[in-house]
Amino acid sequence: MQKNILLTIKNKIKGFHITRSVFAYPYILFLMFFVIIPLALILVNAFLAEGKITFQNFIDLSKDGASLKVLGHSFLVGVVTTGLCLIIGYPVAYILAKMPSGGVLVILFILPMWVNFLIRTLATRAIFQAMGVSLGEGTVIFGMVYNYLPFMILPLHTTLSNIDKSYSEAASDLGADPVTVFLKTTLPLSIPGIISGVIMVFIPTISTFAISQLLGGVFLFGDSINDKFNHGLYGVGSVMSLVMLVFVLLSNILLKRFNKGEAKSSVW
Amino acid sequence: MVKKVFPKIYLIIILALLYAPIIFVVIFSFSNTTNFTFPRGFSLEGYRAIFTSSHAEKLVDSLKNTVIIALISSFASTIIGSVSAVGIFYMKPKSKATIENVNQLPIVNSEIVMAVSLMLFFTTFSFPTGWLRIILGHITFCTPYVILSVMPRLMQMDSNIYEAALDLGASPIKALVKVILPIIFPGILSGSAIAFTLSIDDFIITQINKGAATGIDTLSTYLYSSTRSASGFEPFWYPLFTIIIILVITIVLLVNLNKFKGKGKKKEEEV
Questions:
Q1: Which stretches of A139-265 are assigned E, i.e. beta strand?
Q2: Where would I find the beta strands (DSSP E) of chain A?
């Protein structure tokens, strides 16, 4: 009798098919704890003031002129930096895509990115100081472009080198001059790369921490979030983080819509 | 002719700008100053100062912390990432897509928001300050990259091999270790390299989660605090930067060259 039971148990254990998806369960828990709950806490804290659920933090932020100014200023710096990166980076990506060895050469443009950004920022600052350039708005933007240019070049290069050459060949066969060929075929076909590049530069620029302080004593949104939390203003800090988070999520939805997973580019 | 030369000149100018700060650091690491001049000519004094200056103890200490944190968190995230990549790969499409989306969050999220959200989480549930918070934070942002580097290997794998191992009498665990593991191993290796580099490189997550009172500093947080200290920026930093720059560039080049070799081989096989 007992043997019988043991046998059935044994059979049951054997019959229990370990689906391999079981291996993901610990990580699902991990993601739950260290990604989802922390982000949910930001949401909760944004609506929490003096132990009550209110919009007080939002109202506080909307009255906080200094923070709004920082937000507006970050936006401006972000737009200028992104624009400059696009203007400088597009030709680089375009030339590299046309070169046979472009796939290897692009690594040279990405390489500096792997050196810690504090090191590069401090080096840039030292160059400015050695040249006698006074630190300020201009140096901040230069530092940002310098820091984030690789993020623009990489997705643009991926998209541009995947464009089927026959489009532009057909256009020039049909009599279009090089400028028209570029404007009517290459440029429209590279829009997914432009969008990823713009997002990959804009988001980190506005939320950057420390770069702008080191390069010109300018406070941007990322510094401002850190500052609020440092001063124990968790509510307002959370609202500001929430604003940033919405930016990130919206831009990713946009990215997905345009890329449909094909132009996924990573540094590695 | 002019048309062909112009693009190359443009590339060279941009490259020169991108590398200028790095090259300047390397050159002036031999001047033992912090302001990019050579007042006393060539000297190795700065390099010696890494070990002999009054800050040497703190410096070596933060270097040690950086490496310990990177080793622990890259090891942990490599294990977690590789195992769960297998799990995620065999999930039902719908739940697979959901997990993959959540897995993207730490990658796409702005670092400051992630750092602050972790800080809120740790304080809300009163995690002990210091090491635990830093290492958990590092594992959180490293693991997604390990998964992303193991996944493509799994997708290239012929699923019949695993079934064949089971048919031939291997237990699921044995089949996993003997069949799947060797196939995804290159992905695990590059994943761990990415995790290690990211952890060493991290500044924001550590800075915000280390807790001011614990006194734990990694190289980057110590560097940041020394740029803001009244005593000023010490000359030993440029020699140290130089060592880091050379290390980082060598590692990244090696990994990338390896990748290109791998691609070349695959192409040869296809032919």
A1: none
A2: 48-49, 52-53
Per the model's pLDDT, the better-predicted residue between B228 and A194 turns out to be A194
Does the beta-carbon distance from B201 to A116 stay under 8 Å?
yes
- Asked if B118 lies within 8 A of A34 by C-beta distance, the reply is yes
Quick count: other Cβ atoms within 10 Å of Cβ B84?
25
The answer to whether B110 and B45 are in contact (CB under 8 A) is no
Q: Is residue A13 part of a domain?
A: no
Token pair of B205, please?
A: 């997550």
CATH fourth-level superfamily of B56-234? MetI-like (1.10.3720.10)
Mean pLDDT of the residues in chain A: 84
A56-63 and A234-259 helices cross at what angle (nearest 10)? 90
What is the CB-side half-sphere exposure of residue B26 using CA atoms within 13 A?
12
Q: Let me know if residue A99 belongs to a domain.
A: yes
Residue A35 included in any domain: no
Q: Look at residue A167 and tell me whether its pLDDT is greater than 90.
A: no
Range of the domain at A244: 62-259
Angle between helix axes B237-270 and B45-52 (nearest 10 degrees) is 100
- Let me know: does B255 contact A268? Beta carbons within 8 Å: yes
A69 occurs within a structural domain: yes
Whether the Cβ atoms of residue B247 and residue B67 lie closer than 8 Å to each other: no
pLDDT at B101 over 50: yes
- Dist CA A135 CA A129 (whole Å): 8
- Of B4-8, B70-74, B102-106, where does mean pLDDT reach its minimum? B4-8
The Cα–Cα gap between B172 and A23 comes to 12
ipTM: 0.83
Whether the CB of A96 is below 8 Å from some CB of chain B: the reply is yes
Q: Give the CA angle between residues A245, A250, A254 to the nearest 5°.
A: 145
Q: Which of B3, B78, B120, B220 has the most A C-beta neighbours within 10 Å, making it the best mutation to test the interface with A?
A: B120
How far apart, in whole angstroms, are the C-alpha atoms of residue A195 and residue A214? 29
The domain that holds A70 is classified in CATH as: 1.10.3720.10
To the nearest whole angstrom, how far is the Cα of B46 from the nearest Cα of chain A? 16
Q: How far is CA A150 from the centre of its chain?
A: 12
pLDDT value of residue A107? 87
Which residue of B35, B36, B94, B113 to mutate against A (max A Cβ within 10 Å)? Answer: B113
| Overall domain count for chain A | 1
For chain B, which residues make up each domain, given as ranges?
A: 56-234
CB count, 10 Å around CB of B34? Answer: 18
More confident residue, A17 or B172: B172
